[in-house]
Amino acid sequence: MNIFGFNKTPAIEGFSLKRVVVGPIGTNAYLLINTKSGEALIADPGDEAGRIIAALNRENAKPAAILLTHGHFDHICAADELRAHYGIPVYCLDKEAALMEDPRANGSALWDGPVTLTPDKTFFPEQKAELAGLTFQVLHTPGHTAGSCCYYFPEQNILLSGDTLFHGSYGRTDLETGSDADIVRSVRRLLRELPEDTTVCPGHMDLTFIAFERRFNPLSEG
Question: Which of 18, 101, 148, 187 counts the highest number of beta carbons within 10 A?
């Protein structure tokens, strides 16, 4: 942890956030745990299902669902195994389901063998939802992919930003359905609309904060 508190997960009564870095690209999988009920959400389980299961066991957590910010292989590869192991549904934004089911579009065909994933349920843009006793809003943030989304948990002041917003950076746009113009709009929307003390939990690298990104992100409007 540095002086800005990056990588320090917030201490919130009744809630725990755990990060498990998985796979060859170092994807951040997150466990959002309602410590009052023991239920948990798994976000972006990109690989190494066994490590994610072990982390859940250490917390005595009972997964209720899997949330996906987008459909690239490095964010979905462990979802099927975890879905089968726990008997829980996989969610994504409705606009992203087709990409997840296409191994060329999701990048797996060019990496380590084709992977496809069909979600059990989908969200619509800006939907408000509650799972595992945790309430959140599904923010449609296209740019990295056309159906990328972020999950904002207002009570915990946490944003799961996937590959849209990174610490001092933002997601690449040169892959299937990516868009330079859209990523600019999406990042600026997050920086404009969310509270400055929001903890941002990205798909790769360090955690960050909206206040820091408003000042230092290259896409910030200043």
Answer: 148
